[in-house]
Design brief:
The chain is extended, with a radius of gyration of 21 Å. It has helices spanning about 55-65, 75-85, 100-110; strands at about 5-10, 15-20, 45-50, 70-75, 90-95, 120-125. The two termini are about 30 Å apart. A four-stranded parallel β-sheet has the order 4-3-5-6, sandwiched between helices. By secondary structure, it is an alpha/beta fold. About 25% of the residues lie in helices and about 25% in strands. The chain has a domain at about 40-125: Rossmann fold, CATH 3.40.50.2300.
């Protein structure tokens, strides 16, 4: 790719890995804007199960900006009650819900009426330690 890689290492102090690559800049017109509407998402119903209020609000904001209808809840119990009474196109489930295992919740939702056709997305946080030497 026309780049280089190297490592700086210190005994007992850790290692830092570096790399460079040569890439071409894309024309601005070839990148879809986050602000543009997506007709294939208009009117889709999404259930968000996220215990963190800030994350829940951000997900709801962006899903609605994309033209979807979003119901956002904090607990698995609320989600199961809503899924039983509503038809959703997709559900986004926080992988680290405090009161339940996300995979168990997904399996329970799959077993509800209409759950087999529901698109399930498991959402997890990645914690990176950038610039840290270990």
């Amino acid at each position: 790719m026309g780049g280089t890689m190297w490592v700086e290492s210190e005994a007992g102090g850790g290692s830092t890995f570096h790399f460079t690559i040569q890439i071409e800049r894309l024309a601005a017109t070839s990148v879809e804007s986050w602000e543009e509407k997506r007709p294939h998402l208009d009117g889709r119903r999404v259930l968000v199960i996220e215990d963190n209020e800030t994350n829940r609000r951000i997900l709801k904001y962006w899903l609605e900006r994309f033209g979807m209808h979003c119901l956002a809840v904090a607990t698995a119990q609320e989600a199961l009650e809503l899924q039983s009474a509503n038809a959703f196109d997709a559900a986004i489930i926080d992988f680290e819900l405090p009161e339940t295992d996300a995979l168990s919740l997904a399996e329970t939702i799959r077993n509800l009426p209409g759950g087999q056709s529901l698109h399930l997305l498991l959402l997890t946080s990645v914690r990176l330690r950038v610039g840290h030497r270990s």
